[in-house]
Amino acid sequence: MFSSFRAKLLSLKFRAIRRFVIIILAKIPKDLERAIIFGDTLNHFLMITPLKYFFKFNIPSNIKTNLYDLTFASPLISASFKDDVSSLLQWQLLGIGGITYKTVLKSPSEGNLRPRIQEINYEGEYGILNSLGLPNKGVEKFKLSIPNKKLMHFNRPIGISIGGNSDKEYFEVFSTIESYLDTIDFNQFFYEINISCPNTEDGKCLSDDLDSLKTLLKRFRDLSSRVIFVKVSPDSTEENICTICDILSDIEKTAINIGNSKYITAKNAGLSKKAFTKEGGGLSGKYLYKNTLQMVRLISSKYSIPIIATGGVCSYRQVKELLENGATLTGMATLLVTDPLLVPQINQRLSNE
Ligand SMILES: Cc1cc2nc3c(=O)[nH]c(=O)nc-3n(C[C@H](O)[C@H](O)[C@H](O)COP(=O)(O)O)c2cc1C
Description:
Layout: H1 2-25, H2 32-47, E1 65-67, E2 70-72, E3 76-78, H3 85-94, E4 99-100, E5 117-122, E6 125-130, H4 139-145, H5 149-152, E7 158-162, H6 167-181, E8 189-194, H7 210-223, E9 228-232, H8 238-249, E10 254-258, E11 262-265, E12 280-285, H9 289-302, E13 307-310, H10 316-324, E14 329-332, H11 334-338, H12 342-352
Parallel strand pairs: 3-14, 4-7, 7-8, 8-9, 9-10, 10-13, 13-14
Antiparallel strand pairs: 1-2, 5-6, 6-12, 11-12
Helix pairs in contact: 1-2, 1-12, 2-3, 4-6, 6-7
The structure holds flavin mononucleotide (FMN).
């Protein structure tokens, strides 16, 4: 009761501060990334002081969720979109049941030119459009940051999202990380294969070549016994998704994550050329929910593979609806930046059901 009240109060404060920072920093010239950098820096300082305990909420024990040999403390998990320890730690304190690192690539990359991330209103719904282009430190540097005691202390699953510009790169990233994880005494790591990240010049990705995906997944399975999620795009056709499910049904300890952000053009999002350097990017937020639910219903009616429902999840009602329709876990990205204090409130309501 007191905990719910505290979460609501903190949520009000968080949203007011966030809006203020955006008005001051991200409007002229329009670039949301300035506000994000400021917010991340502020959060970093918060997380290295005892003030971080203001954000600590217990997760009721009756919402624990098992998926193969992983135990998620709650069915709410953070989707892959950040890799800074302070953000991941803040969400764990709030009550996220498991975390997923941002997609890692073989080589370091700065990503696309700014401005490359903006708030938008798409068909009446709040959303974020990003074309970050997977900025990352490269697998060699990334792997050394994995055994973080603060994050492992929670003993909740930690996902590592794998990306690549070719099959060869996916395999190199996966095998480099797997050899490293074998040296760490923590058994709650899992993989997520991001097959919807067109980083190549011709824009092709693994989801366009399902024979290669199948071969690659079998090679991953031979190398590792850890759980593997495959994260698909909401732009995939139903037929494409069913073929991926057929592949996953034949490979042990796999699950499907529906899904990534949806491609739309900057023009359709109402952004000028000055506000977005690329032709288009990935839409995330509320608009995606309808498709997420539809895909969960489709997959659960035909397959028995576990489903992680990601895309537009912003409320208790939606989490409940997805779980009732066959999802095992629900992933969140946009909600964790707009109103992360909803996490403890949703956990509490799930527990009270
Ligand atoms: C800024 C940003 C960066 C993202 N980076 C990644 C990424 O590295 N890998 C990935 O699989 N998905 C990435 N995503 C997609 C999210 O993980 C998630 O699938 C998508 O945003 C839909 O969920 P949401 O509506 O809850 O935001 C990113 C999303 C955002 C907004």
